[in-house]
Amino acid sequence: MICCCSNEVLTMSKRKRPDLKVPAPYMTEQEKILYNLIQSKQDLGIWSWDIKRETSLPDNVVDKSLKSLRSKLLIKEVVNVQFKGRKHYLASEFEPSSEITGGKWYNDQGFLETEFINFLKDQCLKHIRNLKIATVDTVANAVRRSRVLKIDCSSQEIGDIVRALVLDNDVIEMRSNGLGEFASVPTGRMCYKCRRSPDAMKEPRVGVMAWIPCGVCPRIARCMPGGTISPMTCEYYSKWLDF
User: Fold this and answer.
1) Per residue in 76-86, pLDDT tens?
2) What is the pLDDT confidence band of residue 212, given thresholds at 50, 70 and 90?
3) What span is annotated as the signal peptide, if there is one (predicted)?
């Protein structure tokens, strides 16, 4: 009898339990069309005007459906640093890409973190000077070891800062030939050295790029006409031209 009960319990334990999934919120046909489109854009999201253009739905239907999808927490509105006046939507399961948010270089309101960028420039410049000849990776490792930052910066992000220093005329970019002062850097690897002497570091930057917004923007290396980051769509550059 005990054996029989044990077998019964064992059999019941092996039975597949039904999946207790939370039912998805109900969506109208129009909402499904919009949601599927927004979700397909993944972490890049989509501008509300493009939603209307791609779905060909009436404006009032799109506006009502977007509002409903937001209330159901299926989509969210995010700030696009390149087009702050536009309503940009993302499926809730995704986090916006750095192309949308600007990464660490922009705050939650979409404004350039000039103070943080300048601080990081000074740190990178100090380490390049100490290293004599440096690669992006050696600068990034030096910054991490110094523990002066409360957040971690990737090598790619440090590379953005180092290339901004090149444009500031503070750093020289060159390829290693593996000889002499380049002995520690593999042949062909891009590396950097300080252009100015330590005493000159104390002087304010007067490079041509320091006078325009591009001089503090670490994304300038990816800025190009017609690109996601472009001088034609940069509101900081436009304001500088107006000034």
Assistant:
1) 988 777 776 78
2) low
3) none
